[in-house]
Amino acid sequence: MIEIFVAPGGDDSGPGTRERPFATPGRAREAARAAAGDALVQFRGGTYPLEEPLELTEADSGRDGRRVVYQAFGYGTPGQEEVVLSGGRRVTVRQESGGVWAAVVGSLEPRQLHVAGHRAERASIDALPGAAVMTETGYTTDSAGPLDWRSPGDVEFVHRGVYPWTEARCGVAAVAAQDGTTVITMAQPAFGRALDLYNSTWQGMTTRGPGLPTRIENDAAFLTRPGTFVVDRSAPGAHVVRYLPRPGERPEDVVVPALETLLRVTGARDVSLRGLTFADATWTRPSGPEGFLHYHGSGFYEGGPVFTVSLGEGVGSVSVPDESATIPACVVLDDVSGVTVEGCRFTRLGATGLGVGGGAEVTVRGCDFDTLSAGGLTVTRGARDVLVEDNWIHHVGLDYPGSPGVALQGTTRCTVSRNHVAETPHCGIVAGPGRGTRVVGNVATGTMSVLAAGGGVYLSGPQGESYEDGAVIRGNVITDTRTPYNFGLYCDYGAAWVTVEDNVVARADTTAILHVSPPLEHVVYRGNVWDADPMGADAPPPGVTYEDNTTLADEAELLAATEAVRSRAGLLTPRPGLPAEPLHSTAS
After folding, report:
1. DSSP percent split of the chain into helix, strand, coil, nearest 5
2. Where does the sequence pass through the membrane (predicted)?
3. Can you tell me the distance from the alpha carbon of 335 to that of 382, in angstroms, rounded to the nearest whole number?
4. Taking residues 501-527, what's their average pLDDT?
5. Are 386 and 362 in contact (CB under 8 A)?
6. Residues 555-565: what's their mean pLDDT?
């Protein structure tokens, strides 16, 4: 095996040896591409600021049964060095009045900011002041407060709970006084599309559009709480980030994410990534005129037809987009085969951590996903034989709270096994329509902390053509699904050919639900143990087989009865800070 070394203090004109390493990942990639046989790229400890995304293609594949490995030096040993591939830029700040730090960041328009490795929050206010009314183009209010916004075109309205599972974002175009009122004109096409998409009826009540905002973000007038920031884009090419520091913070520790993609692997095969940290990336699309019109999970609306789905006779209906886009990932595996991502960390990222699209035989094992604006991991576009195992996924969906910890959509024979998903604002693990999905032996704790109508494990749509090639949800432990109106283990929206067996569900608003619309077909609930009967268990619908399940309201009895299942669930490799007992949730 050929070893290639790279270090922050290296030299790209050198030979890439241990004594004289390269300086950049791109130069190390070129050396690995030229090597014959196995190639091991060893990253010495430190941060590698990326000026552009690192791209691996078919030319970077392993050859003749051999592999190309990119890993942190000392991987798998006590001496493993910390390696960070960063899309961020350290910025120089100046002091403004009121203790505010300011930095000119050129044409960057970051939606995240990190100070000494900690995430800052966007400055915000709780609601639109005054008696506000939604119009066809925006809002009016009798309050003059919005006239004091310093950069109205940068202000963003957040609409939490448009549907119980949805949080949308729409930008402001202008604010003006008119005939004794304040008129807020919203950016297009986002607002017009929101009027088209968000239409529902519920028990005789009809709503249209996003309604009043539940939070308003990103103006210097809102910058009153330490640890918050705003971005002023009013001067083209000279955008300004302003931050109100916490006590003890240092101005040299401010990092602005610049890249949206850190690593893209396209068409490569037999490549391994081991022990690397991917950090400090953003996603700027929601800041544009199209906003972020979330619908469900990792999906958002980009325009086009919508249709109406009934929630049941006499219950209501919702509008649903004909097509949804998927929130992008900051590390992307496109149409790869035989790729392994092992022992890596995905943190401080402005979108999803890792995205697998298409391809086959991908393994994501032993990784940590945390402090992410969207979800941890998505697997889409017909990907086959993907294994997601032994990953700790927590504190995700920080900006786009509908995002699940793990999301599968349109996959074949994909397995999500022995992961721990914790502290997610909506679902923990989501599987949309697919074939042969396995969700086995996972722990989901502290899910559904923000939005409603979801579960620790959520599955929807047809999953195959028989029980043999359908979905299996087995041996999972699901606790502490937090918001009202949730279903700890949730088969929904026409789920078909699903076996749900030997799971444990406790401390949910509702453990499971058997009556949904469209109805469940060929779904078996067998051998599960929960602390309350599922909704509809007394009269299962025709498409559901409900047998040999046990309800134990007493926690001591439930613990005793489920010891074997709980001992086989959760991480294979323990992580610091996680309790050994999977029936207890982690603290946020």
Report:
1. 10, 40, 50
2. none
3. 10
4. 97
5. yes
6. 96
Q: Which residues contact 471 (CB under 8 A, 6 or more apart)?
A: 431, 434, 436, 437, 438, 439, 459, 463, 464, 495, 497, 498, 499
Q: Are 442 and 414 in contact (CB under 8 A)?
A: no
SS3 557: helix
pLDDT at residue 66 in the model = 87
Q: Cα-flanking dihedrals φ and ψ of residue 564, to 5°?
A: -65, -45
CA-CA distance, 132 to 212, in Å (whole number)? Answer: 8
State the CB neighbour count (10 A cutoff) for residue 251.
15
- 191 DSSP assignment: H
**Using alpha carbons only, what angle is made at residue 320 by residues 170 and 525, rounded to the nearest 5 degrees?**
120
Handedness of CA 460, 465, 468, 469 (dihedral sign): negative
In which residue are the tokens 């990119």 written?
70
CA–CA separation, 306 and 321 (whole Å)? 4
Spatial distance between the Cα atoms of 406 and 529, rounded to a whole number of angstroms: 24
Are 120 and 100 in contact by the 8 Å Cβ rule? The answer is no
Summarised one tens digit per residue, pLDDT across range 134-157 is 999 999 999 999 999 999 999 999
Residue 13 neighbours by CB under 8 Å, 6+ apart: none
Please, what sign has the CA dihedral across residues 185, 186, 188, 194? negative
**48/6 Cα distance (integer angstroms):** 10
DSSP string, 293-348: EEEETTEEE-SS-EEEEE-STTTEEEEEESS-EE--EEEEEES-BS-EEES-EEEE
* Average pLDDT taken over every residue of the chain: 96
Query: Which structure tokens are listed for 444?
Result: 């989901």
Question: What's the Cα-to-Cα distance from 144 to each of 14, 172, 186, 212, 232, rounded to whole Å?
Answer: 63, 16, 17, 17, 21
**426 contacts 402 by C-beta, under 8 angstroms:** yes
Angle at 407 (CA atoms; ends 323, 397), nearest 5 degrees: 95
Asked whether 515 and 536 are in contact (CB, 8 A), the reply is yes
Which residue from 40, 39, 9 is spatially nearest to 24, judged by alpha carbons?
9
Domain residue ranges in the chain: 404-575
